[in-house]
Amino acid sequence: MGVLEVQSERQRTKSFCGVSHGTLGELFQGPLWRAAEPQIAIVSLPVAKYSWSHFVHDPEQPAGVQLGLAGRSKSARAVRHFLELTGREPLPGRWEFFSELEVGKGMASSTADIVATLRCLFNAHGIPYDQRIVTDVLRGIERADSVFLDEFALYLSGRHEVVRRFGSDVGFSTCYVTEDGAVDTEDLEPALLGHYRRHSTAYADCLDDLVKVFSAGDAPGIARCSSRSAALSQQVVPKESYEELLKHQDEFGADGIFVAHTGTIIGYLFHTRPDRFAMDELSSFFHGLGRQCHFAKGGWGHV
């Protein structure tokens, strides 16, 4: 293809994008009671890893033809719901996707894909971003994480309800591993709700304390609450590495342990970034457990 042909191709098509961060599981997952029934409440731990949705608008394709959605059933449903809610017609073109988030591990990969797709649609159709449309679309597709928010929040994943916002001042450095296997949140729901009923007092105390330390901007306190929530989770979705992490937490100066409560991620929280030597030691420790660790920023505050 010659230079003039390349320029013509670029002029003919126009690319739009939407981006969403994922999570490293949760700082808290437990019950919040509504009408005497427990609902799954979460405080997600956002991570600086992302999903991207790209749409290349090509007016020369037949009207309404959108390529690239095969095998992407939830993104395809998001497109369909978005068009129904906004009264728009599908634009001709093709979709492309890329993600840093592992599937089935607790990184909110599915929700992030949907949110990225919706943000791309707002841009492609020239519609101002409307969080209510995002929530309505998610409600029609799946239980979701709060990746559409740019702050910490207590969120009812099944009801798609933001109960309380905690702001974006707190941040953590994390060192984590992903254990083997995958977890399906929907399949786990009956076991989770039964566990929540049996341990309702412990979860209520943990959540009360979490609200207090978030209000105070107390990152180490938040990490301690995360450790309590992780310990409770160990009784229903156990992590193979948990006991070793607990045993060596003080040695590494970690403020707490976090897990993907319905996933396979487990790791340490630090309110200050580990230096190079600490990173070496942490990597050696996890390698001794047969795992490759990863370092990533969680949340938005400076660490």
Automatic annotation (TrEMBL):
Q: Which Gene3D superfamilies match?
A: 3.30.230.10
Q: Name one GO molecular function term.
A: ATP binding
Asked if the keyword Kinase belongs to this entry, the reply reads yes
Does the entry feature the keyword Metal-binding, yes or no?
Answer: no
The alphabetical list of record keywords is: ATP-binding, Kinase, Nucleotide-binding, Transferase
Residue ranges annotated for the GHMP kinase N-terminal domain, each copy included: 77-143
Superkingdom per UniProt: Bacteria
- InterPro entries in UniProt: GHMP_kinase_N_dom (IPR006204), PduX (IPR012363), Ribosomal_Su5_D2-typ_SF (IPR020568), Ribsml_uS5_D2-typ_fold_subgr (IPR014721)
PANTHER family the UniProt entry points to: 4-DIPHOSPHOCYTIDYL-2-C-METHYL-D-ERYTHRITOL KINASE, CHLOROPLASTIC, L-THREONINE KINASE
**Protein name per UniProt:** GHMP kinase N-terminal domain-containing protein
Native species of this protein? Streptomyces caatingaensis
